[in-house]
């Protein structure tokens, strides 16, 4: 029998593992959801802002009630700009309009902060895709749209009736940023709605 020939093949070298940069999972240096995360810090900031805004709104409402009884006819109000100014007698209707407008403005943002606090509470719990968050985001978008429209109308009325030629009303270009913000909020609401739907389907599948 012929002698067995030795195996002259070269040994296979181990193939080094090559990791491409774009396949490396990105990890944030901080925690975004759950207790002790950035969401919990923002939740604390929203709580503080909510309390402060509640106090401001309460003071404005008290001023609105006081304006019903305090005489204001002996006072004047002055509107000025770089070219000059105009002076108008301060009437009770004007005071009620001004205080009421500011009360509605801060009250609207108080409702927005209330919904945002509830949303960030779910983020702190690590469970953001809840059906209630969809409703809350839609309320935030609706209230923001109403506040934006109210400010635009109020400033237009003041510029036309009280300070013509001194105060300019808001143009359509100045509404682009608020309108964009409202649209972003409604898009986020749809994102949360889709996330809640996927979560519900996964729970039913399990």
Automatic annotation (TrEMBL):
Family matches, as InterPro entries: DUF2975
Alphabetical keyword list: Membrane, Transmembrane, Transmembrane helix
Keyword Transmembrane helix: yes
Spans traversing the lipid bilayer: 48-70, 90-113, 140-163, 175-192
Pfam family, one: DUF2975
Record flagged with keyword DNA repair: no
Protein name from the UniProt record: DUF2975 domain-containing protein
Source organism of the structure: Brevundimonas subvibrioides (strain ATCC 15264 / DSM 4735 / LMG 14903 / NBRC 16000 / CB 81)
């Amino acid at each position: 029998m012929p002698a067995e020939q030795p195996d002259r093949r070269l040994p296979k070298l181990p193939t080094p593992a090559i990791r491409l940069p774009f396949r490396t999972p990105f990890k944030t240096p901080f925690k975004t959801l759950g207790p002790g995360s950035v969401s919990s810090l923002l939740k604390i900031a929203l709580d503080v802002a909510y309390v402060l805004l509640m106090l401001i709104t309460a003071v404005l409402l008290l001023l609105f009630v006081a304006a019903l009884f305090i005489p204001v006819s002996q006072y004047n109000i002055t509107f000025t700009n770089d070219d000059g100014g105009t002076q108008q007698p301060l009437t009770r209707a004007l005071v009620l309009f001004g205080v009421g407008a500011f009360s509605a403005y801060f009250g609207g943002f108080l409702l927005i902060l209330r919904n945002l606090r509830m949303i960030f509470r779910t983020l702190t719990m690590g469970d953001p895709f809840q059906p209630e968050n969809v409703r809350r985001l839609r309320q935030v978008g609706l209230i923001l749209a109403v506040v934006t429209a109210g400010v635009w109308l109020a400033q237009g009325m003041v510029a036309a009736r009280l300070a013509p030629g001194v105060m300019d009303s808001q143009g359509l270009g100045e509404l682009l940023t608020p309108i964009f913000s409202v649209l972003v909020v409604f898009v986020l609401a749809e994102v949360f709605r889709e996330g809640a739907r996927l979560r519900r389907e996964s729970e039913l599948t399990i």
